[in-house]
């Protein structure tokens, strides 16, 4: 079944039944654990619309296409963040109220990456939507921390631009 996972996934998806979410999720788990096929596993998880989670050992999907367990210190690459952002954008197109809160810390990392490569203005523009989302979403402690970190980066960039 794992060697023909694409065909099996297509057949299951085309013939939806009760319990197929568990079957597809299990297919993804097996692809990841037994074949080390992270991209294939993530494809399964995305088909059943599993949530993108914050980093944890139990999370199946933190950033699309990268194994957060195998490479915990370097998994937040620009490419992985961009892939996940494309997924978030597609979700927002379908539902303008969609917010992927667990992705906000990775957006902050990406904003810092932009600064590091000299794209300071791009980083500033990149921070604005996240600050707006975090302000509108509520006052949970972790949201306040993210909001403060985004605002701090924004102010540092503005100060840098004035110099």
From TrEMBL:
First-listed, main subcellular location of the protein, grouped into a coarse class: endoplasmic reticulum
Domain Sec16 Sec23-binding: start-end pairs: 1-162
InterPro entries, A to Z: Sec16_Sec23-bd
One of the record's GO cellular component terms: endoplasmic reticulum
Pfam family for this entry, one: TPR_Sec16
CDD domains according to UniProt: ACE1-Sec16-like
Domain of life per record: Eukaryota
Biological processes, Gene Ontology terms: vesicle-mediated transport
Keywords carried by this UniProt record: Endoplasmic reticulum, ER-Golgi transport, Transport
Localization terms from the record: Endoplasmic reticulum
Family under the similarity heading: Belongs to the SEC16 family.
Name assigned to this protein: Protein transport protein SEC16B-like protein
């Amino acid at each position: 079944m794992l060697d023909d996972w694409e065909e099996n996934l297509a057949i299951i998806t085309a013939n939806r039944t009760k319990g197929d979410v568990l079957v597809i999720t299990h297919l993804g788990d097996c692809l990841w654990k037994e074949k080390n096929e992270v991209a294939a596993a993530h494809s399964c998880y995305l088909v059943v619309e599993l949530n993108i989670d914050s980093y944890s050992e139990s999370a199946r999907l933190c950033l699309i296409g990268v194994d957060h367990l195998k490479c915990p210190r370097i998994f937040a690459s620009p490419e992985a963040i961009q892939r996940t952002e494309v997924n978030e954008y597609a979700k927002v197109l379908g539902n303008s109220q969609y917010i992927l809160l667990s992705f906000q810390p990775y957006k902050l990392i990406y904003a810092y990456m932009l600064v590091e490569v000299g794209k300071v203005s791009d980083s500033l523009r990149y921070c604005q939507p996240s600050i707006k989302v975090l302000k509108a979403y509520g006052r949970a402690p972790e949201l306040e921390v993210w909001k403060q970190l985004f605002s701090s980066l924004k102010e540092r960039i503005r100060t840098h631009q004035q110099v």
